[in-house]
């Protein structure tokens, strides 16, 4: 924010440079966030979920971009729902969104045995068994409590988790994800070598597969609920190189803070195809199947279709009002399928 002209100081003034001031503010903000995370982590899970749902109700009520983007994604991906159903799912999703982010500190900082004790059921656990000395690629979409899913995977055996270093709170995140014994592989060429070596040793590899790749290299557009989405090819490359099978796993949040249910699902056929588009389409079908189990717990506010094939309109624009957003989507031609 610039100062009014009457308050502009000369270069010889002793005030801190703007960059240093911003850095100081960022440091104080991070310290405040750390304090808040540790405070919330002490609360019972039921209180955390109630608080998260209550605070998120403000996002439901007040026009804002997260609310609009979630509705855009839901209306685009689930066109068979009526407008009333789409808005209801969006509202339920934002309440779950609040629970997701407030419970993270609890999952990061409470004792491992206590956190794992929140798991009430594991469905498809047999899919986690490794066979013939091969490793296993485990894909955990951003559904429910993905931090819990990663912790649960790491106690099954030696595990390497693909990880994007963060600008803020990085040491806290790294310490939390290592508690079960996992090794973190950064999203770099070196990190990919760590994943390959882990699979060749017959270990687990964990990857979050549902975000848009930053680079075109190693990615193609493939249908996600029928809409072209830029999709990673890393999973396909790892599976083809090492022969490791692929499964999906996520932690569903149970109602009334009763804990979590782990789901393990087989990957669709073709995820290890030599054809990049077939492999990417299979990856997205697997994510769709996971979302179908608990659609309100997916990160619908995330701009999954930020990058669009040439000639297709941008999605995340326009008014913040629900009715106007739905009307705009109805009038636009939203492309479906994979471009050739």
UniProtKB/TrEMBL annotation:
<feature type="compositionally biased region" description="Polar residues">
    <location>
        <begin position="1"/>
        <end position="13"/>
    </location>
</feature>
<keyword id="KW-0808">Transferase</keyword>
<dbReference type="InterPro" id="IPR004960">
    <property type="entry name" value="LipA_acyltrans"/>
</dbReference>
<dbReference type="GO" id="GO:0009247">
    <property type="term" value="P:glycolipid biosynthetic process"/>
</dbReference>
<keyword id="KW-0997">Cell inner membrane</keyword>
<dbReference type="GO" id="GO:0005886">
    <property type="term" value="C:plasma membrane"/>
</dbReference>
<keyword id="KW-1003">Cell membrane</keyword>
<keyword id="KW-0012">Acyltransferase</keyword>
<keyword id="KW-0472">Membrane</keyword>
<feature type="region of interest" description="Disordered">
    <location>
        <begin position="1"/>
        <end position="24"/>
    </location>
</feature>
<protein>
    <submittedName>
        <fullName>Lauroyl/myristoyl acyltransferase</fullName>
    </submittedName>
</protein>
<dbReference type="GO" id="GO:0016746">
    <property type="term" value="F:acyltransferase activity"/>
</dbReference>
<dbReference type="Pfam" id="PF03279">
    <property type="entry name" value="Lip_A_acyltrans"/>
</dbReference>
